[in-house]
Amino acid sequence: MPEFGPNGTISAATSSPVRDYAVEDGETPRIRRVALACFLCGVAASITVSLIAALLAFVFGSIMSIAGTPPSQFGSNDGFMAGAFIAVMMAAFNWYLFYIVVPITWLVLFLSIGIFPRRGIRDHGPYYRWGAIWGGLLVGGTTGLVGGGMAGTAAIGAFVIGGLIGAIAGLICASLFLAIVRPKRQILDIVTDVF
C-alpha cells in the first residue's frame, strides 16, 4: 500500500498486490449475514423445489387433459415423459425428506456461494451461475439416480427435468442470498473504510 506524504502525495509504494477489499495483516474481510443467508436459503430451497414441481405437475396435467393423452402412459417404465413424471413427483414431495435435504443444501451453500463474499466477489453472475449449477446437480442427480433403474430414455428424462427444477430453485435461492448478504455493498463499504 502506498504511503502518503504532505499534501497527499505518494512518498513510497510497496510491492503488495492491489485487492478488491481491505486487508489488515493478512485478515480476510468480515462479511455479515452469510450464515443467516445460507440457513434461510437451505430452507427456501426445499420449499421452492416442491412448489416448482407442483406447478409443473399442474401444467403437465393440464396439457395432457387438453391433448387427450391418457395418464396410463406414465405407468410404463420407458420414455422421456415417464422419467419426467417421476422427477416431478419426486421433487414435489421433496419436503418429506427435509431432514436430509436441508442439511445437505446448507453444506453445499456454505462451501459454494457462502465463501464468495469473503473472496471479494462482488458481481452477481457467479452467485446465480453456481446456485443454478448446484441446484441442478442436487435435484437432477437425485431424480436421475432413481430414474436410473428405469429404461434409458426415462432415466434421461428424470435427470433433465429434475436438473431443470433444481436450476430454477438455485436461481431463486441465489437471489435470496444476494438480497440478504448484499456482497457488493458490504465489500465496497470495507474498501471505503480504509480511507
From TrEMBL:
<protein>
    <recommendedName>
        <fullName>PhnA-like protein</fullName>
    </recommendedName>
</protein>
<feature type="transmembrane region" description="Helical">
    <location>
        <begin position="154"/>
        <end position="181"/>
    </location>
</feature>
<feature type="transmembrane region" description="Helical">
    <location>
        <begin position="34"/>
        <end position="64"/>
    </location>
</feature>
<keyword id="KW-1133">Transmembrane helix</keyword>
<keyword id="KW-0472">Membrane</keyword>
<keyword id="KW-0812">Transmembrane</keyword>
<feature type="transmembrane region" description="Helical">
    <location>
        <begin position="84"/>
        <end position="115"/>
    </location>
</feature>
<feature type="transmembrane region" description="Helical">
    <location>
        <begin position="127"/>
        <end position="148"/>
    </location>
</feature>
